[in-house]
């Protein structure tokens, strides 16, 4: 039996894209409390099913597929630029293909404006009208308004006209930043990318007995199964060691591991690998926010995914990419192991090396040293920085790493940072070693 929360989510999913949603209406339609309706709408927003816009309300939007994640809806643009919708509210759910900055003569500008575009422009009423007629939405910068004819046309065509107090350059930067952030997220492998879905998952129920485990083991060849209740919520995990020596009629509930470690579909693969290695787990149940079973994820699939991710080209340059691109081995005979030149992007507002960059330098030094001792992937477990001095912009940092301890699964490294021969940082790094 589904909960009221799930019923509301199903109801929202079945609504037409672009339809307006309110707590009061949901509560009245499904006969639930307003508190329950509010929590479910927030969950729908987290899942990308709805978007809430100031002065407009909450509307049903298209849930993006992974391959379309770099595109934004007009509703998201409103939120990014702190905008106000002047007209065309029923088109906020639509996805824009690209945006055009209208900083040119009318004839030249209209050559670039097409259906599905977003034209970013100032208070040029004629341009607003022509853009809408061409099938493009309009974002007016500088806090300017438009005339009633344009608003009426926007409502008729279902194309939003949005105003924001920011200037054109700032708006373009904000939208680009949002797209860039989504592109980076797209490159991060998550559980949803590799999970074995529920229809292909073998599981047991709390009313099963040990003989059911033996029957499933003989049929599937697997030795580990999640155990669920009648309402599909994960209650435990059962493995071969749990049923060893148990009577065939013993209830699974008596031998299973209760309250097992679980992950959700938005957890990163790197985080899952860390948990599996640290806890010695071969199979993890994947659950939703209400502990309902969505599928399982195996250790073998996780390690394969990590290897595939490392071969993928990244869309944009992160801070880590920036640091490692300037990170080099020193010449033979040097007392230092590595060196790195500090660029302006690697400093804080005072022009000193930022704490995040310092952490990346320690991580990179420790990881490279560990890989000389053992092949495989490195998962940083703990970094303790216990000495730090300011380092100026455009300086060269020399790094010296010392292996304190390395075992089959763990390593411990001491890292020292120098500038012009004087020590400016000292850290201790502990890491897990993941076999490939």
Report on the structure:
The protein is α+β, with helices and mostly antiparallel strands and about 425 residues long. It has 4 domains: about 1-60, Arc Repressor Mutant, subunit A (Orthogonal Bundle), CATH 1.10.10; about 65-185, 3-Layer(aba) Sandwich (Udp-n-acetylmuramoylalanyl-d-glutamate--2,6- Diaminopimelate Ligase, Chain: A, domain 1); about 190-310, CBS-domain; about 320-435, Roll (Thiol Ester Dehydrase, Chain A). Helix content is about 35%, strand content about 25%. It has helices at about 5-15, 25-30, 35-45, 75-80, 105-110, 125-135, 150-155, 170-185, 190-195, 210-220, 240-245, 250-255, 270-280, 300-310, 320-325, 355-375; strands at about 20, 50-55, 55-60, 85, 100, 115-120, 135-140, 160-165, 195, 205, 225-230, 235-240, 255-260, 265, 285, 295-300, 325-330, 340, 375-390, 395-405, 410-420, 420-435. The strands form 5 sheets. The protein has a 6-stranded antiparallel beta sheet. Strands 4-8-7-6-5 form a 5-stranded mixed beta sheet, with helices on both faces. The chain has a 4-stranded mixed beta sheet with strand order 9-16-15-14. Strand 6 (about 115-120), helix 6 (about 125-135) and strand 7 form a beta-alpha-beta unit. The radius of gyration is 28 Å and the shape is flat.
From the helix content, strand content and strand pairing, which structural class follows?
A: alpha+beta
Averaging pLDDT over every residue, what do you get?
84
> Approximately what portion of the residues adopt beta-strand conformation?
25-35%
Query: Helicity level, as a percent range?
Result: 25-40%
| Top-tier CATH class of the largest domain | Alpha Beta
Radius of gyration: 28 Å
Give me the side-by-side strand order of the main sheet. 17-18-20-21-22-19
Number of domains: 4
Q: CATH homologous superfamily of the largest domain, by name?
A: HprK N-terminal domain-like
- Give the number of helices: 16
Total strand count, please?
22
- Low-pLDDT stretches: 311-315
Task: Give me the CATH fold name of the largest domain.
Answer: Udp-n-acetylmuramoylalanyl-d-glutamate--2,6- Diaminopimelate Ligase, Chain: A, domain 1
The CATH architecture of the largest domain comes to: 3-Layer(aba) Sandwich
Main sheet record: 6 strands, antiparallel
Overall body shape:
flat
N-end to C-end Cα span: 43 Å
